[in-house]
């Protein structure tokens, strides 16, 4: 479980197996089998060496996500949440629900088109995770949503580098998914 509050930005050093250089992320308490959220994707650590870690990425994960396929790419990183820690964002699993298309990004306002199965889970003033970053939804219009990124978020995550035409990993609110499941199961 994660919060969507990015702890550091790392760089993909190697794609297969995935190796992330992350000198700004404290790996002292990370071990084999631990989870780290990489660009919104929950991955299992297979090795830690100095200021880098490795993780296996399945072909399934690569087929339903973006941002893990290019050496040199910057990635958002968050270690898993420990019981008793602050929950500064929202509950995030690291299980990507779909890939969105960046329609516009200017002066902090991000507008993204979602895959057709996701809008039912996205609500104004609700939460959505974009490339591992917890954001508050300001507006939903059919298959698109808008969120405002404060200067701090743009500075300390990869989201400040977004541009129209880019693609992003999306994870909808966990509670919305369960509410929908309960409602549809009872019908």
Overview of this protein structure:
With 187 residues, this protein is mainly β. It is 13% helix and 39% strand. The protein has three helices and twelve strands; from the N terminus they run βββββαββββββαβα. The chain has helices at 59-64, 151-156, 174-185, and strands spanning 8-14, 18-21, 35-38, 41-49, 52-55, 74-79, 98-106, 109-113, 127-130, 133-141, 144-148, 167-172. Strands 1-2-5-4-3-6 form a six-stranded antiparallel beta barrel. The longest helix is centred in the C-terminal third of the chain and has 12 residues, at 174-185. The radius of gyration is 16 Å and the shape is globular. The two termini are 30 Å apart. The relative contact order is 0.20.
What is the fold's blueprint, element by element?
Layout: E1 8-14, E2 18-21, E3 35-38, E4 41-49, E5 52-55, H1 59-64, E6 74-79, E7 98-106, E8 109-113, E9 127-130, E10 133-141, E11 144-148, H2 151-156, E12 167-172, H3 174-185
Antiparallel strand pairs: 1-2, 1-6, 2-5, 3-4, 3-6, 4-5, 7-8, 7-12, 8-11, 9-10, 9-12, 10-11
List keywords for this structure.
187 residues, mainly beta, six-stranded antiparallel beta barrel
Category by helix and strand content: mainly beta
Largest sheet: 6 strands, antiparallel, barrel
Which residue ranges are poorly predicted, with pLDDT under 50 across at least 5 consecutive positions?
A: none
Query: How are helices and strands ordered from N to C?
Result: EEEEEHEEEEEEHEH
List the total number of helices: 3
Nearest-angstrom radius of gyration? 16 Å
Work out the strand percent. 35-45%
Q: Helical residue percent?
A: 10-25%
What is the terminal separation in angstroms?
30 Å
Work out the number of β strands: 12
The 3D shape can be described as: globular
Strand order of the largest sheet: 1-2-5-4-3-6
């Amino acid at each position: 479980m994660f919060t969507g509050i990015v702890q550091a930005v790392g760089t993909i050093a190697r794609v297969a197996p995935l190796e992330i250089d992350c000198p700004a992320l404290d790996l002292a308490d990370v071990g084999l089998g631990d989870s780290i959220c990489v660009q919104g994707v929950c991955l299992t650590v297979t090795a830690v060496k100095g200021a880098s870690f490795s993780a296996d990425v399945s072909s399934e994960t690569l087929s339903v996500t973006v941002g893990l396929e290019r050496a040199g790419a910057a990635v958002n990183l968050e270690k898993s949440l420990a019981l008793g820690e602050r929950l500064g964002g929202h509950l995030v699993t690291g299980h990507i629900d779909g890939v969105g298309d960046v329609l516009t990004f200017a002066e902090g306002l991000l507008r993204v088109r979602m895959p057709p199965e996701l809008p039912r889970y996205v609500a104004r003033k609700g939460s959505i995770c974009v490339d591992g970053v917890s954001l508050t939804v300001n507006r939903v219009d059919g298959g698109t949503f808008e969120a405002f990124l404060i200067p701090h978020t743009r500075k300390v995550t990869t989201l400040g580098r977004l541009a129209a035409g880019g693609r992003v990993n999306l994870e909808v609110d966990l509670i919305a998914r369960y509410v929908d499941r309960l409602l549809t199961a009872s019908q």
